[in-house]
Amino acid sequence: MILTYKIKHHRNFDEELAKAFAIAEFAIQNPKCRSSKDVKHIGLKSMISNQILKKYGRSKTIKQVHSVPLIIPNQGIKFDPITKIINIVPLKLHIPYHFYNPVKINQIEIDKTYAYVSVTIPTTPLRKTDAYIGIDRNTTGHIVVTANPDTGKIEKFGKQAIHTHKKYSNNRKRLQKQGKYRQVKRLRNRESRVVKNINHEVSRKIVKMAVEQNATIVFEDLSGIRTTKKQAKSFKYSLHSWSFYQLQQYVEYKANMFGIPVVYIDPAYTSQDCSKCNNRGKRTGKLFKCPICGHVDHADVNAAFNIAYRQKNMVDRMQKEMCTMGALIPHDAMLEC
């Protein structure tokens, strides 16, 4: 598994970055020149120059450069798994790291503030879990509600996301009326970074919970929701600004590092079925009521329990069927199914 980590380097590389910019411009103007000898007069280390020449000389789409990072290949990088120090030899730079020891550091890109470290992390075999955590994703209120039927534990995360979307949406509307389109673009980028950070924090908490409870993470398969779901005008912005796929990706790769399985179920009626008696109930906003058994619950909590129950019941049913046939299906095969 390949991941990229961002680490502050606390060094001034203005001179080297200016040379990298000059080499990138040369590569665009002279795409056939791929040797560091052609840019030796600029004065950047040949190992870094070669990488910049390859990246910008081969590209047929880049016509103009704005900012060029220093690109260091694997050959110029050493790391000590005991002291957790990365040594970038051409720049004589030492960076401490706090992530899991990688199998290999593929390359590092350096700008004015950060070093972007691309690493290959060993994948952990999927573990055999004892429970299931249902994940209900929402556009209003908390973006994630989790529930574990075995322990009855409920957690809610990311309530600030909807407020962030509304705040930046109102600010962009105001600036658009004033014709300040450059500031609109900056706000959009800032909002994207804030939401990305929220998704990282929420995904980290979900995976930590799954590790502590030794549980499989169960999502609804929401692919195509933006095109299939009927939308009220008041709901359109919340739905289309909702980064549920990004959150899903973050959970997947973090869970993969600990061997936690992530599975998906059919989302039909998860928010309308009763988690106690499995009959069709009535949802009004965030309130769920079952007319059959009288169960009353928060609608998102009820949905999260249903999501976990569906996966648990499916696995139990498959196990029972295989037992009646004289063979018990292995746990890993059940997850694949």
Written description of the protein model:
By secondary structure, the protein is of the alpha+beta class. The protein has 2 domains: 2-120, no CATH class; 131-157 and 205-231 and 243-336, Nucleotidyltransferase, domain 5 (2-Layer Sandwich). The protein is built from 9 helices and 15 strands. It has helices at 14-29, 46-58, 160-177, 181-213, 225-228, 233-240, 244-258, 299-324, 331-336; strands at residues 2-8, 70-73, 77-80, 85-88, 93-96, 104-110, 114-120, 131-137, 144-148, 153-157, 215-220, 262-265, 282-284, 287-289, 296-298. The chain has a 5-stranded mixed beta sheet with strand order 10-9-8-11-12. It has a 4-stranded antiparallel beta sheet with strand order 1-7-6-2. Strand 9 and strand 10 form a beta hairpin. Helix 1 crosses helix 2 (46-58) and helix 4 runs parallel beside helix 7 (244-258). The longest helix has 33 residues, at 181-213. The protein is elongated, with a radius of gyration of 25 Å.
